[in-house]
Amino acid sequence: MSGMVGEWVTLLLMAFALGMDAFSVGLGMGMYKLRLKKIFNIGITIGLFHVWMPLVGLIAGKFLSDKFGVFATFIGGLLLIVLGVQMVWSTMKKGEEKVISPVGFGLLLFALSVSLDSFSVGLTLGIYGAKTIMVILCFGIVATVQTWAGLLLGRKVQGWLGTYSEALGGAILLAFGLKLLAPFW
């Protein structure tokens, strides 16, 4: 019994650490003028990606090497940089349509970028034989809640910063993407 409690605590801590990127990026993305319904949908989408990506990672972890996890982190960093640059660029181009926004393909790109690290961790957990249901429940629920928290906090900050909030949100995404890519330099 104590082994199972220890495993839950470990997985919750891992889920919290992995969900911090969803929180940070949600903080930046929350600076878009988002309605509560959209915030709810974004949180659910990110949570589903944090279920799906580690599940795929767990399965692949039984067959692939750790090198693939490095690739996933690299791609996630690049995606965040693209999103961040687009947000900063769109504030400079007044009156033009945004290239990427948190709807449709933009939302999927956003969700993918913050959940790729869950894939990497899923690979590792798959190699070590972690319990699949425990992993995906922890990762999905924690990522959803942390995304909602980041988006709601970003929404509040957006009201304080006015038109510069989107540029700040883009800078947050850009900085987080650069942080992910730092080990590759």
UniProtKB/TrEMBL annotation:
Q: Name one Pfam family in it.
A: Mntp
Instruction: List keywords of the entry alphabetically.
Output: Cell membrane, Ion transport, Manganese, Membrane, Transmembrane, Transmembrane helix, Transport
Q: Does the keyword Protein biosynthesis apply?
A: no
Question: Key word Transmembrane present in the record?
Answer: yes
List where the protein spans the membrane.
12-32, 39-64, 70-91, 103-127, 133-154, 161-182
Q: What is the membrane topology here?
A: Multi-pass membrane protein
UniProt lists the family membership as follows:
Belongs to the MntP (TC 9.B.29) family.
Q: What does this protein do?
A: Probably functions as a manganese efflux pump.
HAMAP family in the record: MntP_pump (MF_01521)
Q: What is this protein called?
A: Putative manganese efflux pump MntP
What taxonomic ancestry is recorded? Bacteria, Bacillati, Bacillota, Bacilli, Bacillales
